[in-house]
Design brief:
Elements: E1 2-4, E2 7-10, E3 14-16, H1 25-33, E4 38-45, H2 46-50, H3 54-58, E5 69-74, H4 78-90, E6 95-100, H5 105-108, H6 120-133, E7 138-143, H7 153-162, E8 167-171, H8 186-192, E9 201-204, H9 210-220, E10 224-227, H10 237-247, H11 256-274, H12 276-290, H13 298-306, H14 310-330
Parallel strand pairs: 3-4, 3-10, 4-5, 5-6, 6-7, 7-8, 8-9, 9-10
Antiparallel strand pairs: 1-2
Helix pairs in contact: 1-11, 4-6, 7-8, 9-10, 11-12, 11-14, 12-13
Length: 331
């Protein structure tokens, strides 16, 4: 049984990775419905929270049905991160998570996210201060290191555990790799199998099928896996992995109707949470994945990603079922 502090997560939990501009409440609702065991918010700027910036504050929205849920923060200044963690705690998440993994230039090159992997003593000090500042369990998401010559994750994980974190999620790439190449899970396995480690170790990177999840569990002994890109437009992946682990059988793939229903629900939830304008533009990035690999779908997709009218989008969902469905069946 994997557990973070007193939060029980099941035998092999599946975590939804925090993804900027993706893992907002509408998307999380779908992932929860389809089997995610632990989810995190999009990462939230510590400086934005302290300044009460609207975009940062909005990301604190969490809902009871999402639990257990972690709020993730990032920043380069210890004082700001400590203050931001306290603000997050007031929103009453189950977990406070620290982002030490974001490789994006505007974050990492300011010393936040994966940028702090160039200053391990500061990383440890910042973590210790956040642990002391809050009563919620603190977890960390990070990478193997800054580059090939600084993959110190085995030692780093120990030191973070020693200052009080309750779990660690490790992406199997360096910051320099960004998202290129294959994730290397060997060092994640070394962290998990280090006899000094007692907290859960979750692996992240390239989990895009039930077989891959089982391979990483069996080969490296991780306590669970974190899934990011493979869940975008495909929230079914969580239950597909669970079903395969339990039965050795694949769940039937979601039908066209399932996909339309999920895309429609995603848009409806987004409208409720952020209003029509933002909902329409920000949900567009998901449609290509909801309908990935469908032949002769271009005209429908173009409407979905260019229309600014809710009525037109909803009518397009209806047309996909009524017009495209029979055409697809005839192919």
């Amino acid at each position: 049984m994997a557990r973070i502090a007193d939060i029980e997560l099941g035998d092999f939990p599946l975590l939804l990775a925090p993804m900027e501009d993706v893992s907002d409440p509408p998307f999380r609702a779908l992932c929860k419905q389809h089997g995610a065991d632990l989810m995190y918010t999009e990462f939230i700027s510590s400086e934005g929270l302290i300044r009460d910036a609207a975009k940062s504050v909005a990301k604190l929205d969490i809902f009871e049905y999402e639990r257990p849920i972690g709020i993730q923060i990032f920043g380069a200044e210890i004082d700001s991160m400590r203050e931001a963690a306290a603000i997050c705690e007031e929103a009453n998440p189950d977990i406070i998570d620290i982002n030490y993994g974001c490789p994006v230039k505007k974050v990492a090159c300011k010393g936040a996210g994966a940028g702090i992997l160039q200053d391990i003593p500061k990383m440890v000090s910042m973590t210790a201060e956040i642990v002391k500042a809050v009563n919620k369990p603190v977890t960390v998401k990070t990478r193997l290191g800054w580059d090939e010559d600084s993959k110190y994750i085995v030692e780093v994980a120990e030191r973070l555990q020693d200052v009080g974190i309750q779990a660690i999620s490790i992406h199997g790439r360096t910051r320099k790799q960004m998202y290129k190449g294959d994730a290397d899970w060997t060092l994640i396995g070394e962290v998990k199998n280090n006899s000094r480690m007692t907290i859960p170790v979750f692996g992240n990177g390239d989990i895009d099928s039930p077989e891959k999840a089982i391979e990483m569990r069996d080969k490296f002994g991780v306590d669970g896996v974190m899934i990011g890109r493979a869940s975008i437009g495909y929230p079914w992946i969580f239950n597909e992995i669970k079903h395969f682990m339990a039965t050795g059988q694949h769940l039937a793939a979601p039908s066209l109707e399932d996909r339309v229903q999920a895309a429609r629900r995603h848009l409806e939830l987004a409208i409720q949470w952020k209003g029509e304008g933002l909902a329409i533009t920000e949900t567009r990035r998901h449609y290509a994945n909801y309908f990935r690999d469908f032949p002769n779908f271009k005209d429908y997709r173009m409407t979905l990603v260019t229309s600014n009218e809710v009525d037109e989008l909803m009518a397009t969902f209806d047309k996909i079922v009524e017009e495209y469905g029979p055409m697809l069946a005839a192919l």
